[in-house]
Fold this sequence. Notes:
Helix content is 59%, strand content 7%. The chain is mainly α. The chain has a two-stranded antiparallel ribbon. Helix 3 runs parallel beside helix 5.
Amino acid sequence: MTNPAYIAPARLSRPRPIYLVPLLVIPLVLYNIFGFVFFGGNPAGWANSPLFSIFMASGAQWVLTSGDLMVVVGLVCLFFEILKATRIGTSSMIEHVLSTVVFILYLVEFILVAATASSTFFILMVMALIDVIAGFSVSMSAAQRDVTYN
Length: 150
């Protein structure tokens, strides 16, 4: 009897890095779509409009507005952006640069466009700033763990 020759499995090639668009661009696009396309550039017209309300056990009424929901979407995106910042590599640096570009877009739009002069957009802009600062900070501390000193 002959023993079949062992054939080692082919080495899987690593996929090329995927440059993901920063997730905080989602609230920026949604704000612009709702604010400009559907409501004609009036942030007070939609950001303060209630989506639904719930009576709490205390008897108080809790109202969720469109602007509140947009902030929640931004917080979820910020959470995943912080998770993405823990990766190390060339793609992570490009993603940090893209996050900086998104923050600059928020800032320029906030300063120059009257329809974005709302507290909802300001909070989203601060989230983009936190994403930039936290992204670089987390990446630096993660990279520092990988460096060995003699």
